[in-house]
Every structure is written in structure tokens, then in C-alpha cells.
Amino acid sequence: MTESICLIDSVSTAPIKVIKPLFFGYKTPDPLPWAAIAGPLATAEDALARLDERLAKSPIRDGWISRNHFTDACASLWLEGELVHLEDLVLHDAGMDIRAPTHELTRARAVLRTRRRIVREKPDWALSPAGLAALRGLDGTGDLDEVGGEREEGGAGDCDAREAGDVLEAALALTANDDGLSEALAAVDAAMAKTDRALASDSPSQFRHATDRDPLVYDIDWDEDDRLATWRASVDEARILPPTLAAAIAADAWRSIEPLQHRPWLGQLLAAALLRQRCKTRSHLGCLHDGLKTIPRERRRSRDTATRLVAELDAITAAAEAGLKAHDRWLNQRTLLLRKLTGRRSTSKLPALVDYVLTRPVVSAGMIAEELGVTSRAALGLVIELGLREATGRGRYRAWGIL
Fold first, then answer.
1. Is 120 exposed, middle or buried, given 0-12, 13-18 or 19+ CB atoms closer than 10 A?
2. What's the pLDDT tens digit per position in 3-29?
3. Which among 225, 233, 227, 270 has a CA at the least distance from the CA of 248?
4. Phi/psi at 121 (nearest 5 deg)?
5. Distances (CA, A) of 72 to 51, 94, 108, 152, 347
6. Nearest-CA neighbor of 191 among 159, 167, 174, 173?
7. What is the Cα–Cα distance from 219 to 326, expressed in whole angstroms?
8. Are 17 and 290 in contact (CB under 8 A)?
9. DSSP of 275-317, one letter per residue?
10. HSE on the CB side for 245, CA within 13 Å?
């Protein structure tokens, strides 16, 4: 007995080392290495200005923006080492998946919906406190869940509530008959109970405190609010700099600080929103993920801050140049397609199909049928008349698009 007590005492008195949290932060180089970044900065500024001016009066501006939402969403997952096929994302967004969606595909659609929301709001919305809260999923709208996926509009809770309302209306209609009064009251009770369950299950989980998060999914020592405040301080310091350089610093600071655990892709979107806020890109939201794909990883992840800033500026240039080439190519394709509409009757669906195919990288017969309000067979006939290019090369699933 004495030996066991001595053994317990020896174990209990062992010193315990406390692991301190790692320092996180970002320090803008002072002074800035102008000799290294002046050339890339001027090139990026010119490329952005040319693209934005071209899109300002372009007849396919909305289609260009819509198509590049999909491209940039796929590129964001590519930078994280995940492969998402463009046609799978288009079909998943249209609710016409040909297979069960993967986790990567769900995250890509979260990026897609975030881009759409940033474009839909005012230019200064994304970087405001309310905008950041919404993009983090803390505004209660339910667009995105707290692990980076999306909460579908009209989900199970909404369906249960609508179903309960239908039952309630049917029950009230039965009260006119004395024989069905008991059944009506029972139906009302069931409807009220079902509505209570739906409301209880539809409470947004994003309002939970950070300490209530699952430790298997979230690091409990990861203070997102503090990290986000540090990132915003870095962005505020760069407000006196040119817009393109400020956006590059914002993107690099986000990658260094990592404010949000499950949304590393949000930094590039906020940098693009900064360009829009500073009126550098009035007509579009930059596709910085797509441009960053062209930069070698050694430059993107360099230990030297100047090298990383130059890489960000080169990525902005690459994105703008690629967007300009794609715009000219799609505008040429639109001109060729419009030539095939000569002599068509006024009720023809072909002009609507031309407009629709310019907004999606690929379209399937089901997507065309749903958009134009025709049958799938009629959609195939329209595709043949318009002469669209078959994009998938599959036998069981076919889709069409323009180059």
C-alpha cells in the first residue's frame, strides 16, 4: 500500500509543460520593395483597366461574369489540391447531378454562391462588418453552413412547415362537417406539433459560441475573431497604396494569417472585392483564383514577402489577360451564332438559347428544357439547329457549349 502511494505521488508531481499558441500576424514590408514590384504593379493595373473597360460596354458582360463564376470556383479547389470538373459543377448548380455530389463539389458550389452574392451586393458590402459576418455564415441567412458547404434554400425545415400549413388548411376545411370535427382537431394538433419540430430543427447552428463547436472539426484554440481583426488591420494599413497593390497585400495577408479555418478561398474573393470597392474593377469581380493557377507554388508560398507580392500581382495580370481573351472569343462565337438566326420567326426559341448558352460553360438537354420551357426532345432539336459543340464526349451524358 505504501509503495502504491509513493508511486502516485511521484507521478502527480511531474512538471507539466504548457504549449503556448503560435503567433499569427502579418507585417507589410516597410519600406516596400518598389524596385521588385513596380513593374508587375504597372502591368497588373493596365491589364485590369483594359478588361474592365472592355466589359463596361460589352453585350456579353453578364454572360462573361456568369461563366467565370464557375471557372474561378473550380480554380479555388484546384489551388487546394482538389479536382472539380467544370461540367459537374454546372450540373450540380442546376440541380441535375448525374452522380452523388462529392464534398469537393459542395465546397466549389459554396465558392460559386459566395461570388454571386458579392457581385449582387454593393461594392463596399463584402469588406464591411455586416458583409464579413454574412460571408462567414453568421447572419442567419443560411446560405452557407459553418463548415464551408451550403444550406439549400427551401430545405427540409421549410418543406415541413409548408406541409404542416397544408394540413392545417385541410383541417379547417373539415370543420364545416360535424362528423369530421374530431378528425379535424386531431389534424390541427398534428400540424402544430410538426411545425414546432420544424422550427426547433431549423435553428441556425452558426449562432453557437465557438466553444460549442465540435473539436473534431474545429480547433478550439483558433480565435477567428482575433485573426480576422488582425487581417482587417493589415487591409486598413494598405488603403493608402494603389488598389491593385492593396488587393495583393490583402490576399497575401489572408494566406499568412488564415482567419477562418474552413474557408481559405475567401481571401482571394475579398481581394477581388477590394478592387471593386476601390473602383478599379467597376464592371466585374476579378477571377484571382484562376490567375493564381498559373503561378508556380514555389512563388506563391515563398518565405520572402516581396516574392509573394510579385506573384499575386502576376496572378492578377494573368487573370485579366485570360479574361480578355475569353471575352473576345465568346463575343466572336456569339456573332457567328446570331448569323444563324436570320429569317427565323419571332416566336423562335433560338435567340433565348444563344443568350443562355453564353451564361454557362456547358448546357445539357435538361437544363435547356427547364430554362426555355420546352421538352427535352425539342431542346435537342434546338441544339442541332444552332450547331453547338458537344463538350463531354460521353455516350450516356451529353452536354454542349461554345469554345
1. exposed
2. 544 544 554 444 444 444 554 677 777
3. 270
4. -85, 180
5. 16, 17, 9, 21, 36
6. 167
7. 41
8. no
9. HHHTTS-SS----HHHHHTTS-HHHHT-S-HHHHHHHHHHHHH
10. 20
In DSSP terms, 400 is beta-bridged to 363, 390
Q: Collapsing DSSP states into helix, strand and coil, what is residue 166?
A: helix
Amino acid present at 148: G
24 burial (CB, 10 Å; 0-12 / 13-18 / 19+) is: middle
Evaluate whether 204 touches 146 at the Cβ level (below 8 Å): no
Whole-angstrom distance, CA of residue 111 vs CA of residue 286:
14
Angle 266-211-232 from CA coordinates, rounded to 5°: 35
Separation in Å, CA 144 to CA 10, 109, 170, 223, 342? 51, 10, 35, 20, 45
Q: Could you report the per-residue pLDDT of 249-259, keeping only the tens digit for each?
A: 999 999 999 88
- CA-CA-CA-CA torsion for 222, 257, 111, 141, nearest 10 degrees? 50
**Which is nearest to 94 in space by CA: 381, 380, 386, 359?**
359
Three cell numbers written together for 72: 474561378
Distance CA 369, CA 353 (A): 10
- What is the DSSP secondary structure assignment for residue 211, as one 8-state letter? G
The answer, as to whether pTM is greater than 0.85, is no
